[in-house]
From TrEMBL:
Organism field: Trifolium pratense
The UniProt record lists the keyword Zinc: no
Transmembrane portions of the chain: 6-28, 40-60, 90-111
One Pfam match: LMBR1
Name listed for the protein in its UniProt record: LIMR family protein at5g01460-like protein
Membrane topology: Multi-pass membrane protein
Length: 117
């Protein structure tokens, strides 16, 4: 069953890349025409925030698939090869808190204060 876990890791990486590319597409497609070549830090924060939000939602099916990895295991050590979902959940929640309380407000005030008058 080690192949299942490798496939789950590959699927998780591909989904993260697709989410990131989709969020960059959304940002580029729906940005204001005046913001085309400026404010790169707030744009990075927007893409990062949207990506973390989408990945935190998409982690639930990954957690379910990870728990089912060792249900039909042929050998006893199959559960040792699963993804460390507790650590991943903790990392996503900590990243959410850092983004919400520190990074996003700073980026918002930086963007609003950087306007030319």
């Amino acid at each position: 069953m080690g192949d299942f876990n490798l496939a789950l890791v590959i699927v998780a990486i591909v989904v993260c890349i697709i989410v990131f590319i989709f969020n960059v597409y959304l940002l580029v497609n729906y940005q204001h025409p005046d913001d085309v070549n400026q404010a790169y830090f707030p744009k990075f924060v927007v893409v990062l925030g949207l990506s973390v939000a989408a990945i935190s939602i998409l982690m639930l099916p990954a957690d379910v698939a990870n728990r089912h990895a060792c249900r039909h295991a042929i050998y006893n050590g199959a559960c040792n090869l699963t993804l460390p979902m507790k650590d991943l959940w903790l990392a996503v929640y900590i990243l959410d808190a850092i983004l919400v309380f520190f990074v996003i407000p700073f980026a918002m005030f930086y963007y609003e204060g950087d306007q030319d008058k």
